[in-house]
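User: Can you recover a sequence for this backbone? Please restate the input before giving your answer.

Assistant: Of course. Working from this structure:
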């Protein structure tokens, strides 16, 4: 039996029949999940672990990636080998050539974790040409936290797993500030993802302040002091390192959707707040800041559930002069429209206005998710407490 400690159970359920990548931002608990949950019932002697976060291990395999094959063969001479676990594989992209060979020749199963596929792609790695599944791990969601979940705490601090172990507000603040600095140092500077760090620091603050708004690349580029092309590459770095995602404008045509200004959402509410420089600002209900944080949180929950449960919805938003829909979930023959409000009482007049606005989306289901605890239906709009609405949308 595994001797690793306990953890909050995660919704992710990777295959056990073959190899897989597990990507996610730093601090989302990838290594802990693999050790504490995925491999908890596997005999430790049947697991080979390479931790590339250790400088001496990284250095060895950077210089001698073929050493992996020798280690595997040495282990197989002594014991049966069920899994090979390589942590932070993007640090040595050339290892994937050896992994590919070992999967093909010895039919071994690999677990490959990483905080970025960017360096793997730049290193000409092909993510094993489909020979490994790809999953992502996110900060903790409300359905994973269960009774431990506290909305006010989640909106203020976010839900990186480490925070669940910290009770003192001062220590939580120090952790999040350290996280931002660690990201800049380890993920950006050491991996040499940008040439100059100073404008990227400015970019992170401006990008966080622009969270959830249609992106005006020209205005942001002026604020950061860089050009349009560099700015787009900065956002791409955030997406590649799993620090956020784009939300495109809605269109039944993908080509038309790409012409609209996308929104960008950071992967965690707390990280967004510390990067925006507002971590010390209290979030009070019935304020615009609280409403924005709540909308961000619910969109993150939907993004994570869609990914973890493999529902394959395409997420987008819709905005014209007269109509605005916070989120649209689309897949063949199904559309779900979601309006998100932090109010504790549903405003019937506003719901009816929303219902009239979305009449053009024929056959679509419409949800009004809020903090009102009373479920009701107004003019074909399902008005539900936000968690109940998520259960309904994802059949939880």
């Amino acid at each position: 039996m595994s001797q690793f400690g306990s953890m909050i159970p995660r919704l992710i359920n990777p295959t056990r029949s073959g190899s897989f990548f597990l990507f996610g931002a730093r601090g989302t608990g990838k290594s802990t999940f693999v050790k504490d949950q995925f491999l908890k019932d596997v005999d430790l002697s049947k697991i080979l672990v390479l931790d590339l976060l250790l400088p001496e291990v990284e250095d060895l395999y950077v210089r001698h990636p073929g050493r992996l094959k020798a280690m595997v063969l040495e282990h197989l001479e002594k014991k049966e080998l069920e899994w090979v676990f390589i942590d932070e594989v993007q640090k040595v992209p050339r290892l994937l050539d050896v992994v590919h060979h070992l999967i093909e020749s010895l039919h071994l199963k690999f677990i490959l974790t990483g905080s970025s596929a960017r360096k793997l792609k730049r290193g000409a790695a092909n993510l094993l040409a489909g020979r490994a599944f790809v999953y992502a791990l996110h900060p903790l969601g409300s359905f994973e936290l269960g009774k431990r979940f506290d909305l006010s705490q989640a909106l203020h601090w976010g839900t990186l797993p480490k925070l669940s172990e910290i009770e003192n507000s001062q220590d939580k603040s120090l952790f999040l500030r350290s996280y931002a600095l660690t990201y800049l140092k380890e993920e950006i500077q050491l991996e040499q993802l940008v040439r100059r760090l100073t404008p990227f620091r400015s970019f992170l603050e401006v990008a966080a302040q622009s969270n959830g708004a249609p992106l005006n690349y020209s205005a942001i580029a002026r604020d950061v002091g860089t050009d349009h092309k560099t700015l787009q590459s900065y956002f791409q770095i955030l997406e590649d390192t799993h620090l956020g995602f784009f939300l495109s404008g809605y269109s039944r045509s993908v080509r038309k959707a790409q012409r609209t200004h996308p929104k960008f959402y950071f992967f965690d509410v707390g990280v967004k707040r510390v990067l925006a420089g507002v971590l010390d600002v209290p979030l009070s209900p019935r304020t615009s800041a609280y409403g924005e944080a709540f909308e961000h949180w619910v969109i993150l929950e939907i993004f994570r559930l869609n990914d973890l449960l493999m529902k394959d919805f395409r997420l987008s938003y819709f905005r014209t002069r007269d109509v605005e829909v916070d989120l649209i979930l689309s897949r063949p023959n199904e559309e779900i429209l979601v309006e998100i409000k932090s109010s504790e009482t549903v405003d019937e007049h506003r719901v009816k206005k929303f219902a009239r606005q979305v009449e053009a989306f024929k056959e679509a289901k419409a949800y009004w998710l809020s903090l009102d605890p009373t479920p009701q239906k107004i003019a074909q709009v399902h008005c539900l407490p936000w968690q109940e609405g998520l259960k309904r949308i994802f059949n939880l």
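That completes the design. The CA atoms of residues 146 and 254 lie 37 Å apart.
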